[in-house]
UniProtKB/TrEMBL annotation, chain A:
One of its GO terms (molecular function) is nucleotide binding. InterPro entries: Beta-grasp_dom_sf, MOCS2A, Mopterin_synth/thiamin_S_b, ThiS/MoaD-like. The lineage of its organism: Bacteria, Pseudomonadati, Pseudomonadota, Gammaproteobacteria, Thiotrichales. GO terms for biological process: Mo-molybdopterin cofactor biosynthetic process. Keywords: Nucleotide-binding. Pfam families: ThiS (PF02597). Belongs to the MoaD family. It comes from the Bacteria. It comes from Leucothrix pacifica. This is Molybdopterin synthase sulfur carrier subunit. The gene is moaD. GO terms for cellular component: molybdopterin adenylyltransferase complex. SUPFAM superfamilies: MoaD/ThiS. The keyword Nucleotide-binding applies. The keyword Cell wall biogenesis/degradation does not apply.
UniProtKB/TrEMBL annotation, chain B:
It is an enzyme of class 2 (transferase). Transmembrane segments: none annotated. Pathway: Cofactor biosynthesis; molybdopterin biosynthesis. This is Molybdopterin synthase catalytic subunit. Belongs to the MoaE family. GO terms for biological process: Mo-molybdopterin cofactor biosynthetic process. It comes from Leucothrix pacifica. Keywords: Molybdenum cofactor biosynthesis. Heterotetramer of 2 MoaD subunits and 2 MoaE subunits. Also stable as homodimer. The enzyme changes between these two forms during catalysis. One of its GO terms (molecular function) is molybdopterin synthase activity. Pfam families: MoaE (PF02391). InterPro entries: MoaE_sf, Mopterin_biosynth_MoaE. CDD domains: MoaE.
Length: 78, 151
């Protein structure tokens, strides 16, 4: 079965105590559903940004097997 | 000609501009304006002394976003060249963090595009700063300061 690769960055990575997850996926799901499956004890922070295959996406965006899904706090570069 | 650099070690923005000019702009006479912004690390933030900073990023997404930010600016202004560099890793006060350099025929496009690229980077490029304070405490920077001064 194919899987989705999930990444967490910065304060979110520290909060969850992990930098990523791998979730087997047989049917497409939303980014939010995947978060809820992987992190049942932490609700998705309101300010959290989401990217699918390195492009910005929304909580209700569809994720397919083989995609790279990332969750991270507001960016503070520059 | 556009160039994006991610530097895991300290870099000299002024030398980088010189190298870029000497490598890519030799013999070209199509630009009349160069605008440059350099961001460096302060040793204070929100009333506290900052000893150093850790700059994390999402490598696969960073370059894509920076290229996309340059492409957006090119849609809005006639730009000849863009040089965009950003540090990652452990940063000390006075270290350069970011360089935006824009070459255009006229100053309006150079000034405006340089500022817009910097603002877009602040809001879209996946970088995160963690401050290690002189007191020994560490904290993530939660949000950006405003990019426009108040009247």
């Amino acid at each position: 079965m194919k899987a989705v690769k999930v990444l967490y960055f910065a304060s979110l990575r520290e909060l969850l105590g992990k930098s990523g997850d791998t979730l087997p996926l047989d049917v497409e799901q939303t980014a939010l559903t995947i978060w809820q499956t992987l992190n049942p004890n932490s609700s998705l922070p309101e300010s959290c940004l989401i990217a699918i295959n390195q492009e910005y996406a929304a909580a209700d965006s569809i994720v397919n097997a083989g995609d790279e899904l990332a969750f991270f706090p507001p960016v503070t570069g520059g | 000609m556009n160039k994006v650099n991610i530097h895991p070690a300290p870099f000299n923005p002024w030398r980088e501009i010189t190298d870029f000019q000497e490598t890519n702009l030799q013999g070209l006479c199509n630009y009349g304006a160069t605008a440059t912004f350099v961001g460096t690390m302060r040793d204070f933030n929100e009333g506290d002394d900052v000893a150093e900073m850790e700059l994390e990023h999402y490598p696969a997404m960073t370059e894509k976003q920076l290229q996309s930010i340059i492409a957006d600016a090119e849609q809005r202004w006639p730009l000849q060249h863009v040089l965009l560099s950003h540090r990652v890793g452990l940063i000390k006060p006075a270290d350069p963090i970011v360089l935006v350099s824009v070459w255009s025929a006229h100053r309006a496009a150079a000034f405006d595009a340089c500022r817009e690229i910097m603002e877009a980077l602040k809001h879209k490029a996946p970088f995160w700063k963690k401050e290690n304070l002189s007191s020994g405490e560490s904290r993530w920077v939660a949000s950006n300061t405003p990019g426009f001064s108040e009247d």
